[in-house]
Amino acid sequence: VTGTVLLNDKSPLDAKSLFNTLKSDWKLKADSLSTADKTIVFTVPGATVMIAQLVYPADPIEIRAASQLSWLWKNAAEEALRHQSQVVISVIGSPAKSLELHGIFTKVAAAVLENTRSSGVYMSGQYLLISKGFYSSAAHNLLDNQTLPVYCWVYFGMPGDGGGYTFGMQEFGLKEMEIVKSSHNNAEVHGTLYDAAMSAIKYNLRPIEGESLTT
Length: 215
Known about the structure:
Layout: E1 2-7, H1 15-24, E2 31-36, E3 39-44, E4 47-54, H2 60-69, H3 76-80, E5 85-92, H4 98-114, E6 118-123, E7 128-131, H5 132-145, E8 155-160, E9 163-167, E10 178-179, H6 186-203
Antiparallel strand pairs: 1-5, 1-6, 2-3, 3-4, 4-5, 6-7, 8-9, 9-10
Helix pairs in contact: 4-5
């Protein structure tokens, strides 16, 4: 699982402070901390976490394109494009543990957000751009209430006219979902799609043709 925290300055990341935050605030049993030039590597149960600070911004063309899709972050184009550097986070582990790896990534990304002057998180594989406040809140809900932060992992397209689709389910080894020309309103279409995606990710559901999926 890979994603990028967008930083508003070029200040170096404090590895020891981050490591302590992960243990105390995010309850991650981090171990074997290793630091080099602008890189941090450590292990947690079931995964290796690699963090690299790049002293240049993410591709502005990609960020601008993602901001145009980011209906959860209304000022994304203005705020995200002001970033000056980036922290790339990679969580490496078994593909069979994708849900757990995403959970670890979310906690590490939130810890980086809260230890830096940053604006948000960008997931290039899903063209997801999430603001700092929303992402941090979703991560705390994951920690405190075991609520999956699906909006931080999967993009939900809302083209209107009774339609909706997901983009990012493939990261969990699942098929994307789509609703086409429903007679229900857009809010109901989106709610149904969200619940279906949540259930599929949480329980690793792989529906076959003709099978019902309760939401």
